[in-house]
Design brief:
This protein is mostly beta strands. The protein is built from 1 helix and 5 strands; from the N terminus they run E-E-H-E-E-E. It is about 5% helix and about 50% strand.
Length: about 80
């Protein structure tokens, strides 16, 4: 755990991009409340490729797809689907 115990830092993550079928080609920007480091002040954006699952419940994400060390993660919907 980073930072002081019990201290909460609010982070903001923004994705902006273009939807093409089940794929989204975008950029991600991150920021946090409070004083900014020099790197954060530069407001760097990272390219991402996101692909939606067939049932739209998950999104596979690859950050920095053209780099030597891309980062992979999954975003999952918290919305419960209604059944008829």
């Amino acid at each position: 755990m980073l930072g002081a115990a019990g201290k909460t830092t609010r982070c903001h993550v923004t994705y902006e991009g273009r939807i093409d079928g089940y794929a989204i080609i975008a950029e991600v920007a991150r920021s946090r409340d409070g004083p900014k480091t020099l790197l954060e002040a530069a407001n760097l954006k990272t390219k991402v490729l996101m692909v939606l699952s067939d049932d739209l419940s998950k999104m596979q994400v690859m950050e920095n797809p053209q780099g030597l060390t891309p980062i992979f993660y999954t975003l999952t919907s918290r919305v419960n689907k209604l059944t008829a």
